[in-house]
Write a structure and sequence with these properties.
This protein folds into 2 domains: 132 residues, no CATH class; 45 residues. With 180 residues, it is an all-alpha fold. The longest helix has 40 residues.
Length: 180
Amino acid sequence: MTNTASLLGLASSFALFSILAVGGGVAVLPEMQALMAQRYGISGESFVHIYGIGQLAPGPNMLMVLALGYRIAGFAGALTVLVAFFTPALLLSLIGGRIWDKVGETPWRRAVQNALEPVSLGLMISGLYAIAREALNGPVSFGLCALTFALLVATRINPVLIMLGASATGVVLMKISGLP
């Protein structure tokens, strides 16, 4: 699937995701997950696994798009998705940042910020819901999610250590119990 038309389709999809990712990449996860399933046959479970890898990798968590691109079209797909997903957001940030600085502290700027905050929050929650719907598929995964959340909120333990510990615990418990 590495012909030019396929790579252009991949690039256009991920460029659009980049522009729509108000509040961060998590905002486009539901639509990205649906597109990956419809066009490229990537199951919800595989998408969640790829997302999990992105969460553990250093750097932006949306580097997961590289794994999606690689899975779809090999190295060419990964490179295409990298450029398509990060370039529009980079350009918008550079241009928007310059305009934002010129606008200064005006009532108009504050109104735009106030309007975008709930939109961003809503989009991030929808992304969380899309991932949780696939990932929370049984008592073990639900219990580990609740425990991980409690540890993240109530302690100062490094989140990566909590996630790794929960992952290891999940593997053991799911093997022992046979439950998801």
